[in-house]
Amino acid sequence: MNAFTSNASLVIYPTNPNWIPDKPEALIKTLQQTGLTGEPLNKNENSYLVGEYFLDHISFMGCSPNIKLENENDDGTFTFIRITTTENITALTGKHGFAPHCPQCKKPEKNWRVLLKDNQLVCSHCQQISDAWLYNWRKSAGFGRCFIEITDIYPKEAIPQSSVLELLEKRFQIPWSYFFYHA
Ligand SMILES: [Zn+2]
């Protein structure tokens, strides 16, 4: 699956990897009410311009964020919001160099790229078989069926405020988190 066309994204997702909204409109409506998302991008109905309160919900690190909120260069390299839902649990692991930690023995698994099969990992230290999302990825990968992608944001360039995660949790009764996807 390659729903992600942006090289680098901040992705907000539900921590239950099986969760998708009963109605996709409910998720979009919630995001629009919070002001995170604005008008739809006409080329893709799952994509939205950033909303009026985007910068209240997403904190940029550093003093002068190099962020484009409009398609200035007409090449799609700007920050917008794309909502993706998938039929099966999708692993968005990207090309980060972080070795995730086993949920049982807590040791890092350097060979995870080779070992990852059907979203499971067999730990090479303790042999425990675990769902890959139970590993500690330190926000460098995510597993799920529903992703709110904020495009053109490089790892640690910006993070969501707890306000937006709490709003999503309150509305959908499940905890949300985020990670950085770097293709
Ligand atoms: Zn282990």
Textual characterization of the structure:
- This protein has 183 residues and is an alpha+beta fold.
- It folds into two domains: 8-93 and 138-182, no CATH class; 99-136, no CATH class.
- The protein is 16% helix and 33% strand.
- It contains four helices and ten strands; from the N terminus they run βαββαββαββββαβ.
- It has helices spanning 24-34, 54-57, 112-115, 162-172, and strands at residues 8-14, 37-41, 44-50, 58-60, 81-92, 120-122, 129-131, 142-151, 158-160, 176-182.
- It has a six-stranded antiparallel β-sheet.
- A hairpin with a 6-residue loop joins β6 (120-122) and β7 (129-131).
- α1 packs antiparallel against α4.
- The longest helix is centred in the N-terminal third of the chain and has 11 residues, at 24-34.
- It is globular.
- It starts with 7 loop residues before the first strand and ends with a strand.
- The model has no long low-confidence stretch (mean pLDDT 91).
- The structure holds zinc ion.
Which tags fit this structure?
183 residues, alpha+beta, 2 domains, six-stranded antiparallel sheet, two-stranded antiparallel sheet, 10 strands, 16% helix, globular, binds zinc ion
